[in-house]
Design a protein that fits this description.
The strands form 2 sheets. This protein has a 7-stranded mixed β-sheet with strand order 1-13-12-11-10-8-5. Strands 2-4-3-7-6-9 form a 6-stranded mixed β-sheet, with no helix packed on it. The protein has 11 helices and 13 strands. By secondary structure, it is of the alpha+beta class.
């Protein structure tokens, strides 16, 4: 349990001015006010109802029993970037070879000494890049007891997370926050808020704006914004996600073959490529190929390419190709012949022409 948490004081960043990337972001310390949540409606929710409240709460404070509800509702323009980030994380995880957990809009809470909720806040999306202990995720993330997400995403379509939420993330010790202003326009958004992603990195208890992510090495703010706003994944985004995934994997000794889905896809592609090579050689030698060959192409994926070439160049027909390959790979455990005994039927499956 964290015992260094400061008293609950909801800070704000009142100024809307450019910030020096190298300098800490001063988010302020004045008390919570509904004005800190532009685009939200203040709704009274008593303490005994907040646990079961079904509305979309951006922020709730036990002292005032006020819930800040996003006035625009769950529009596609707001929800798209958060859903997109989960898909992006899955692609990065595949290249990395280890899973990344996307938490969606689950609640983040701080509880009082009696176990009741003192402060509740909902992120638009959050990611656990590090492996999580235990088989199940908590129902809500208790910021004093549970592992904190490696990345939190806030989508400022009609709101401004810098004013009412960023300071709370800072006080709770969240290591990295991304705030994205979507490309989709919004009538109430100030003209000074251009569409872009901003990365906030926690250093010595304060946020500073970073050019690249710390949790996803080399992932720039511009690449993040493009990836979560484009409707279809571009070539540039694919290259960026593969690069980030490989960098994460290199630090952990993992890669695409450690991802079960991607490994099977790669294995099947490798087997089919080798089967095409054998077909070309046999056809060049004037040997026809029957249906049994197609049933056994999956055998070729795990066998040495040199043995496959030698068998294709020296066999007398397609049946003899597998028999020759079995002899050449007899030292492999388990041998091909033991896995798939040859089926010699009347007539050759592949005969000289």
């Amino acid at each position: 349990m964290r015992d260094t948490m400061p008293p609950v004081v909801e800070p704000t960043q009142a100024a809307d001015r450019p910030l020096d990337v190298a300098s800490p972001v001063r988010v302020g310390t004045r008390p919570f006010s509904p004005d800190d949540f532009p685009g939200c409606e203040a709704v009274r929710v008593p303490r005994d109802r907040i646990e079961d409240f079904e509305g979309r709460v951006e922020y709730w404070d036990a002292r005032r029993e006020l819930a800040m509800i996003v006035g625009a509702g769950s529009t596609l323009h707001h929800e798209w970037p958060a859903a997109r980030l989960a898909a992006i994380a899955e692609r990065i995880a595949a290249s990395r070879g280890l899973p990344i957990v996307a938490g969606g809009t689950a609640d983040l809470v701080r509880r009082d000494k009696d176990g009741g909720i003192e402060v509740l806040m909902a992120a638009d999306q959050f990611l656990f890049v590090r492996p999580l202990a235990g088989p199940e995720l908590p129902e809500r993330i208790d910021v004093e007891r549970d592992p904190l997400p490696d990345v939190v995403l806030e989508v400022d379509h009609s709101t401004d997370a810098r004013r009412g939420k960023l300071g709370q993330y800072e006080r709770w010790g969240f290591p990295e926050v991304w705030i994205d202003v979507p490309d989709a326009p919004w009538p109430g958004r100030p003209g000074s808020r251009a569409s872009a992603a901003t990365i906030y990195l926690l250093e010595r208890g304060a946020y500073r704006i970073g050019e690249t992510s710390r949790a996803f090495p080399g992932f720039t703010a511009a690449e993040i914004h493009r990836a979560i706003n484009e409707r279809f994944m571009s070539v540039e985004t694919v290259a960026a996600l593969r690069r980030v995934g490989r960098l994460l994997g290199a630090a952990e000794g993992t890669g695409p073959d450690d991802d079960p889905w991607l490994k099977q896809e790669r294995d099947e592609g490798r087997a089919e490529g080798r089967a095409d090579m054998v077909r070309a050689i046999l056809q060049h030698r004037g040997l026809a190929i029957g249906g049994l060959f197609a049933e056994r192409t999956h055998d070729l994926e795990a066998l040495p390419k040199s043995a496959i070439l030698q068998a294709a160049m020296t066999c007398s027909d397609a049946d003899d190709f597998f028999a020759t390959l079995a002899r050449l790979t007899a030292g492999i455990d388990p041998p091909l012949l033991k896995l798939h005994p040859l089926r010699r039927e009347r007539g050759s499956e592949c005969s000289d022409q």
